[in-house]
Amino acid sequence: MRHPVRTTATLLCTASLCTVSLCTAPFCTAQAAPPLFLDVATSPKGSSASDMFRDIGRVCMNASFLRQRQTSGSVENLDLLLGNQVSLAFIQLDVLKARDQIDKDPRARELKQLLPLNFDEIHLIAPRPQQKKNVFGKVSIVGATKFSDLKGKKVGTWGGSMITANVLKAKSGLPFTIVEYKNREDTLKALAAGQVDAALSVVGQPADWVKALDAARYALLPLDIPSSKVNGFYREATLRYPQLGSGVPTYGVQRILVTRAFKTPEKRAALLNYQKCALGKLTALQETEGFHPKWNEVTFKESDWPWFR
Q1: Which domain covers residue 149, as residue numbers?
Q2: Where are the transmembrane segments (predicted)?
Q3: Which of 38, 54, 79, 231 is most solvent-facing, going by the fewest CB within 10 Å?
Q4: What's the half-sphere exposure (Cβ side, CA atoms, 13 Å) at 83?
Q5: Residue 41 in contact with residue 86, Cβ under 8 Å?
Q6: Torsion over CA: 270, 276, 282, 284 (sign)
Q7: C-alpha closest to that of 93 among 70, 117, 69
Q8: d(CA 289, CA 153)
């Protein structure tokens, strides 16, 4: 005689955790609690933050369970982290410093650095200057050839790059108008339509979308700001895109992976496991084919923010 299959709810308890598990009699067995997933705010697809998060995941598959949340960039990431919508976020250091030093938000200083990463370069993109002759045959250059030529002009930007644009404006003393857009696509459309005179983006080179720009229409402008005016926020860097202007002087800002000062044992363990694995896999991150070339600039030693310990 066949006995009917009975499904019962079994309460599994430990000293600190109770979970409800469904089992089929008479084969009821204890089930482990589901893994703890942590959400991570990166940046749009194709960004250095998104690619580097992917790379860490490939070498640290069993360290922790993390889910990517692609965003518009550092400003949104910081707001999500402070708003308890994610557990980790890739954030430009100037965005974090601005929230702390300029906005005087006390919550910013409470954040902790899980990993210090690479320096992303400031890309200033403008229509390629044109040569024109007047009626007397004299040749003149029409269009911007460097940052200081943007006096009185409009510069489009988005996400964390908007903070960078504001810092550069304040540090340089150059009067220009910053126009904020929702994302990269809208900013580049505005540049193509002549609604802004340049577009500013902080992104790790080589960025695929920068390489895809029409070299006949666009050029990269040098940031001709004395380093003494931007010390403490940026360090000198060089852009190398042969088709757009190789050897273009600019500045770079560090990107760091940030978290909150969590205290729950499970979350702390997940974060520390992820941190430990990444710190121990730097050589693999630098030498695995197909990984982002920015890994070759990472040391995990350069740091200007308190560590998560």
Answers
A1: 121-254
A2: none
A3: 231
A4: 8
A5: yes
A6: negative
A7: 117
A8: 42
